[in-house]
Amino acid sequence: MTDYPVRPIVKPADLTHAMNGLLRKDVLRKIGPTSGELHRHAATAWNCLSMAAFFDKISLDHVGAYRSLGQQTTLFKQRYSLTPQGRNITRKMNGQTYYLRDGFAPSSTPGMSNHGWGLAIDIADCSGDRLAWLLDGNAEKFGWSWEVKNGPQAEAWHIRYVCGDAPPRGVRNALASFPELNA
How far apart are CA 120 and CA 27, in angstroms? Predict the structure, then answer.
């Protein structure tokens, strides 16, 4: 079983009075190579991480970034039910216990997701060389950390930006060489 490095999130200052899943457009930035948005600092860190991966011949795509409260609710309703399931992974919402449906990956209770802060991203096909590259210190160098260290709720593909307003070393170095990444 893989242990994923976990660091606590330091939120950017402009999220202090924000509401999860209801972020103002001016704190979000579009990211590539596919569509999506992240908090502006997380977007810069993602773009820098993706560029470093490209130079190391690793492709980084994502399948989930910022999620509005409505998107979080829709995802939750697809993945959870009030009926106990085989894996017994649960979430609480409105005083009720919801069970993860068999065959689905976990998600947070709406309003509790780091995707709702624009700080989390789900990496497409995060396994093999791609996962090894991230675990080899590259995710951390660019300000990313996993949510769960190990166990049934650990997700190799789910990382979150943890550096608040202070750009990590990898981002500073990338921006010195390619300032357009912060545009």
Answer: 14
Tens-place pLDDT, residues 10-47: 999 999 999 999 999 999 999 976 689 999 999 999 99
Please tell me whether residue 154 adopts helix, strand or coil conformation: coil
9 exposure class (CB count in 10 Å sphere: 0-12, 13-18, 19+): middle
Q: How far apart are CA 125 and CA 60, in angstroms?
A: 9
Burial 21-35 (b: 16+ CB within 10 A, else e): bebeeebbbebeeee
pLDDT tens per residue across span 97-120: 999 999 999 999 999 999 999 999
What is the rounded distance in angstroms from the CA atom of residue 159 to the CA atom of residue 135? 11
The structure's pTM equals 0.92
Rounded Cα distance between 20 and 96, Å, is 21
Q: Contact, 31 vs 154, CB < 8 A?
A: no
Tell me the β-bridge partners of 81: 99
- H/E stretch holding 121: strand 120-123
Residue 48 one-letter amino acid: C
**Alpha-carbon distance 169 to 113, whole Å?**
26
Element housing 177 (H / E): helix 169-177
